[in-house]
């Protein structure tokens, strides 16, 4: 997946990964590498530096036959090194660069550089989020995002889905949960045309506009044309939750497809997609990486079996009887109440001992668009709960019957005229359909074993925090 093979375009210098994975060139062939110094070790006559361009988690060891060549190198310095690539006698590396010449591209003051070799806390690094991509942990997380996105793309490609792009600025609150960021009337996003009087920002669209909380409604419009669609897109929620699984800006994988009949079919697609991600993250054919061990372990433990499904009603029964016996929960579990994260964790960790789909929640607990079951009380939906994380995915069959949908909108206190376009999808050739949304950072956290999703995105935003 992280291609090392082949040396790529002549217009681009080789990356360290490309050089490490290519066959060893003849000892007299000069090679150039570019990167940043991660560490320097000086001995009497010789010096060693680890140089990384981020393309390979370990970087490359550069050997300076004359220690004075490394005189001006400090952590963080950017360099161009020319030398010869040789088989390395050192442990844990096949190749090293024997340096002939050093060019310092950018100095880094060792007294001031905030990203020193010593152990840095996640809190400290969040304060320096423009520099923290230079740490090994954040760099490898960025590659994990890359691998997982490619894996997802491959999965949907193989299953006949079209990758589509949906709007970020929207007119509706898809989830109806009141967590939308409104684009403020005095927003500087309002254009000023030279020569024209600046339009009053509040008149820009002629009505309120929001940042999207989910692409689902727009995806439904596209699935009503080309049947199977998906997107990986930023979503924005003005959530005040200060937890390790909530961000104000996060990425969501969402898929929507027509002609699906049961909520279990939707669960099957989700399960297969996540198993594919584990396979790809565990793949060591392009060299090991910091997360492949964990992905392989998860793969062995859970990807080889079918993930259980339990209805909300049964889940509440299990929770209630455990509560009766132990009084372990802070929140009392009862039919009609939302599952709290302590309940979700218990279901995955203790009851299922692995991922578990909880299906058929009461209609009042879920958004208006979910398909009402024949019992008239519950909807054909699911949450996928993961051990150590809680909810990773939410999905459902969508209500395809116009009368049921407008009833549900009214019950949820929504004005049907604002969703007229969405109702149109039910008026003209409505088809049974369904889909899901998966929190991308939560997936990265789970696959990568990264405790907080603030470390699963380069520049996190959460209530009270947006540095750059
Ligand atoms: O369950 P949610 O709210 O579902 C929807 O938005 C649907 N419209 C999606 C769909 O069916 N197309 O969100 C889906 C997932 C959650 O399970 C969670 O993983 C993630 O999005 N998520 C968040 N991730 C990080 N920070 C937040 N504030 C999140 N809110 C939801």
From TrEMBL:
PANTHER family xref list: ASPARAGINE--TRNA LIGASE, MITOCHONDRIAL-RELATED, ASPARTYL/LYSYL-TRNA SYNTHETASE
NCBIfam families reported for this sequence: asnS (TIGR00457), PRK03932.1 (NF003037)
Record-listed E.C. numbers: 6.1.1.22
Similarity field: Belongs to the class-II aminoacyl-tRNA synthetase family.
GO biological process, one term: asparaginyl-tRNA aminoacylation
Keyword Aminoacyl-tRNA synthetase: yes
A Gene Ontology cellular-component term: mitochondrion
GO molecular function: asparagine-tRNA ligase activity; ATP binding; nucleic acid binding
Keywords on record: Aminoacyl-tRNA synthetase, ATP-binding, Ligase, Nucleotide-binding, Protein biosynthesis
Name of the top EC class for this enzyme: ligase
Protein name: Asparagine--tRNA ligase, mitochondrial
Residues covered by the Aminoacyl-transfer RNA synthetases class-II family profile domain: 148-460
């Amino acid at each position: 997946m992280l291609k090392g093979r082949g040396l790529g375009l002549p217009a681009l210098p080789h990356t360290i990964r490309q050089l490490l994975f290519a066959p060893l060139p003849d000892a007299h062939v000069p090679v150039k590498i570019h990167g940043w110094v991660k560490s320097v070790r000086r001995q009497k006559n010789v010096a060693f530096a680890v140089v990384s361009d981020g393309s390979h988690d370990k970087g490359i060891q550069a050997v300076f036959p004359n220690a004075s060549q490394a005189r001006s190198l400090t952590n963080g310095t950017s360099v161009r090194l020319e030398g010869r690539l040789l088989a390395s006698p050192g442990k844990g590396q096949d190749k090293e660069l024997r340096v002939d010449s050093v060019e310092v591209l950018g100095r880094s003051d060792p007294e001031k550089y905030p990203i020193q070799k010593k152990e840095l806390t996640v809190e400290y690094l969040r304060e320096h989020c423009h520099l923290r991509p230079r740490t090994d942990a954040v760099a490898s997380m960025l590659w994990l995002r890359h691998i997982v996105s490619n894996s997802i793309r491959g999965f949907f490609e193989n299953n006949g889905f079209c990758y589509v792009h949906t709007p970020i600025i929207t007119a509706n609150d898809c989830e109806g949960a009141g967590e939308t960021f409104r684009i403020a009337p005095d927003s500087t996003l309002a254009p000023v045309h030279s020569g024209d009087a600046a339009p009053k920002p509040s008149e820009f669209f002629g009505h309120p506009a929001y940042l999207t909380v989910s692409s689902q409604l727009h995806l439904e419009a596209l699935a009503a044309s080309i049947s199977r669609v998906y997107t990986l897109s930023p979503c924005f929620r003005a959530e005040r939750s200060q937890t390790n699984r909530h961000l104000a800006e996060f990425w969501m994988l969402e898929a929507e497809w027509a002609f699906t009949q049961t909520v279990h079919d939707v669960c099957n697609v989700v399960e297969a997609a996540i198993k594919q991600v584990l396979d790809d993250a565990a793949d060591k054919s392009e060299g090991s990486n910091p997360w492949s061990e964990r992905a392989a372990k998860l793969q062995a433990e859970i990807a080889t079996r079918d993930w259980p499904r339990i209805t909300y009603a049964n889940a509440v029964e299990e929770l209630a009887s455990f509560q009766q016996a132990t009084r372990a929960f802070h929140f009392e579990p009862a039919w009609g109440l939302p599952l709290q994260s302590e309940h979700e964790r218990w279901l995955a960790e203790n009851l299922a001992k692995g991922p578990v789909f909880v299906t058929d929640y009461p209609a009042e607990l879920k958004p208006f668009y979910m398909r009402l079951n024949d019992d008239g009380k519950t909807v054909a939906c699911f949450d996928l709960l993961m051990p150590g994380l809680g909810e990773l995915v939410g999905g459902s069959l969508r209500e395809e019957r116009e009368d049921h949908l407008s009833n549900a909108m009214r019950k949820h206190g929504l004005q049907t005229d604002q969703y007229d376009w969405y109702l149109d999808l039910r008026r003209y050739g409505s088809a049974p359909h369904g889909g899901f949304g998966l929190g991308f950072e939560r997936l990265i956290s789970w696959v990568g074993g990264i405790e907080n999703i603030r470390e699963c995105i380069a520049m996190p935003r959460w209530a009270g925090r947006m540095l750059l």
